[in-house]
Amino acid sequence: QVRLVESGGGVVQPGGSLRLACAASGRTIRSNTMGWFRQSQGREREFVAAITWTSTADYTDSVKGRFTISRDNAKNTVYLQMNSLKPEDTAVYYCNTLPSGGWDNPQNALDAWGQGTLVTVSS
Hints:
Mean pLDDT: 96
Radius of gyration: 13 Å
Structural class: mainly beta
Protein backbone atom coordinates (compact mmCIF):
# COMPACT_ATOMS: atom_id res chain seq x y z
CA GLN A 1 0.00 0.00 0.00
CA VAL A 2 1.13 3.53 -0.72
CA ARG A 3 1.81 5.96 2.11
CA LEU A 4 0.77 9.49 1.23
CA VAL A 5 2.04 12.62 2.97
CA GLU A 6 0.57 16.00 2.12
CA SER A 7 2.37 19.28 2.78
CA GLY A 8 2.41 22.93 1.83
CA GLY A 9 -0.69 24.21 3.54
CA GLY A 10 -0.83 27.40 5.54
CA VAL A 11 -2.62 30.68 6.10
CA VAL A 12 -2.95 32.99 3.11
CA GLN A 13 -4.94 36.11 2.32
CA PRO A 14 -7.67 36.06 -0.32
CA GLY A 15 -6.08 36.29 -3.74
CA GLY A 16 -2.92 34.60 -2.56
CA SER A 17 -1.27 31.37 -3.70
CA LEU A 18 -0.08 28.11 -2.21
CA ARG A 19 1.54 25.02 -3.65
CA LEU A 20 0.62 21.71 -2.08
CA ALA A 21 2.68 18.56 -2.44
CA CYS A 22 1.71 14.93 -2.03
CA ALA A 23 4.68 12.63 -1.56
CA ALA A 24 4.08 8.93 -2.04
CA SER A 25 6.21 6.12 -0.66
CA GLY A 26 6.00 2.36 -0.68
CA ARG A 27 5.67 1.94 -4.42
CA THR A 28 5.67 4.02 -7.55
CA ILE A 29 2.53 5.95 -8.41
CA ARG A 30 3.55 6.65 -12.00
CA SER A 31 0.81 4.41 -13.42
CA ASN A 32 -1.91 5.74 -11.12
CA THR A 33 -4.43 8.47 -11.55
CA MET A 34 -3.84 10.79 -8.59
CA GLY A 35 -6.29 13.18 -7.06
CA TRP A 36 -6.71 15.97 -4.59
CA PHE A 37 -9.74 16.25 -2.34
CA ARG A 38 -10.68 18.68 0.39
CA GLN A 39 -12.85 18.68 3.45
CA SER A 40 -14.04 21.74 5.28
CA GLN A 41 -15.62 21.76 8.69
CA GLY A 42 -19.03 20.15 8.74
CA ARG A 43 -18.89 19.08 5.11
CA GLU A 44 -18.12 15.87 3.31
CA ARG A 45 -14.84 15.33 1.53
CA GLU A 46 -15.08 16.64 -2.03
CA PHE A 47 -13.18 16.26 -5.25
CA VAL A 48 -10.81 19.05 -6.29
CA ALA A 49 -8.58 17.78 -9.09
CA ALA A 50 -7.17 14.65 -10.67
CA ILE A 51 -4.34 13.82 -13.04
CA THR A 52 -4.05 10.62 -15.03
CA TRP A 53 -0.87 8.71 -15.71
CA THR A 54 -0.73 10.46 -19.08
CA SER A 55 -1.04 13.83 -17.28
CA THR A 56 -4.57 14.55 -18.41
CA ALA A 57 -6.09 16.82 -15.76
CA ASP A 58 -9.62 17.23 -14.47
CA TYR A 59 -10.96 19.84 -12.06
CA THR A 60 -14.10 20.58 -10.16
CA ASP A 61 -15.82 23.64 -11.60
CA SER A 62 -15.13 25.90 -8.63
CA VAL A 63 -11.34 25.71 -9.06
CA LYS A 64 -11.03 25.70 -12.85
CA GLY A 65 -8.71 28.44 -14.01
CA ARG A 66 -7.27 28.90 -10.51
CA PHE A 67 -5.78 25.53 -9.55
CA THR A 68 -3.30 23.39 -11.50
CA ILE A 69 -2.50 19.78 -10.73
CA SER A 70 0.81 18.30 -11.86
CA ARG A 71 3.01 15.31 -11.18
CA ASP A 72 6.70 14.50 -11.01
CA ASN A 73 7.04 10.75 -11.43
CA ALA A 74 10.77 10.86 -10.71
CA LYS A 75 9.96 12.24 -7.26
CA ASN A 76 6.81 10.13 -6.82
CA THR A 77 5.03 13.36 -5.99
CA VAL A 78 1.89 15.17 -7.08
CA TYR A 79 1.39 18.91 -6.72
CA LEU A 80 -1.53 21.29 -6.54
CA GLN A 81 -0.77 24.90 -7.43
CA MET A 82 -3.53 27.09 -6.02
CA ASN A 83 -3.84 30.68 -7.19
CA SER A 84 -6.44 33.38 -6.56
CA LEU A 85 -7.46 31.66 -3.37
CA LYS A 86 -10.85 32.42 -1.87
CA PRO A 87 -12.14 32.00 1.69
CA GLU A 88 -14.32 29.14 0.45
CA ASP A 89 -11.15 27.22 -0.45
CA THR A 90 -10.41 26.88 3.26
CA ALA A 91 -10.24 23.16 4.06
CA VAL A 92 -7.97 20.26 4.83
CA TYR A 93 -6.56 19.00 1.54
CA TYR A 94 -5.86 15.32 0.93
CA CYS A 95 -4.44 13.32 -1.95
CA ASN A 96 -4.95 9.70 -2.94
CA THR A 97 -4.50 7.18 -5.67
CA LEU A 98 -7.55 6.66 -7.82
CA PRO A 99 -8.99 4.25 -10.40
CA SER A 100 -9.01 5.12 -14.09
CA GLY A 101 -12.67 6.11 -13.89
CA GLY A 102 -14.90 7.61 -11.23
CA TRP A 103 -12.00 9.57 -9.81
CA ASP A 104 -14.21 12.36 -8.55
CA ASN A 105 -15.68 10.13 -5.84
CA PRO A 106 -13.54 10.00 -2.67
CA GLN A 107 -15.07 6.63 -1.85
CA ASN A 108 -13.18 5.22 -4.85
CA ALA A 109 -9.79 6.14 -3.37
CA LEU A 110 -7.45 3.18 -3.45
CA ASP A 111 -5.14 3.81 -0.53
CA ALA A 112 -5.37 4.96 3.06
CA TRP A 113 -5.87 8.67 3.55
CA GLY A 114 -2.99 10.68 4.94
CA GLN A 115 -3.19 13.42 7.55
CA GLY A 116 -3.91 16.10 5.00
CA THR A 117 -2.66 19.66 5.00
CA LEU A 118 -4.71 22.61 6.23
CA VAL A 119 -5.29 25.58 3.96
CA THR A 120 -6.80 28.67 5.54
CA VAL A 121 -7.76 31.62 3.36
CA SER A 122 -8.53 34.62 5.51
CA SER A 123 -7.87 38.32 5.71
